[in-house]
């Protein structure tokens, strides 16, 4: 409860501070189960190439775990946003949610894998069609799969939800680049649904 006489502006300011600095925690199924404020951990800055991660610890505490070898006097940074998103979306979300434009090495120089720009791959809609004139049809099919995923989110019947996600995932596996955000979203939806039903084998396939 807020003290009596607290102004609406002060309440909004407090909520903004909590939103900017609180940590959310998920269970083994990837569902958010709580939010907590840890002032010392909140001083850590962001990077899209983080060298540490924050994880829940025993007794309501949190643990800071390095994700790679860290040299002495190196700043520890973790990620404030979804790393499985292209630079354009990461920067937009960080600016909207945290009020800054990220200028980390990944945002400035990009990320490359096998000589391929990962950002381009993540936003790729479909495989090249060699000028055969069917790219538009493939794109419409991929876009239609978005409606399937949205229907699955609202579906109370787990079996029907899985059928919708399977259909959407089939489309995106067929036409989307393996690193595309569209494919990642469908794979993630299938993984979460499978975990919620205790089907760990199917979740591991995503």
From TrEMBL:
UniProt xrefs under Pfam families: SET (PF00856)
Top-rank taxon: Eukaryota
Domain SET residue range list: 1-81
Signal peptide: none
Entry-linked InterPro entries: H3K4_H4K5_MeTrfase, SET_dom, SET_dom_sf, TPR-like_helical_dom_sf
UniProt name for this protein: SET domain-containing protein
The species this protein was found in: Haptolina brevifila
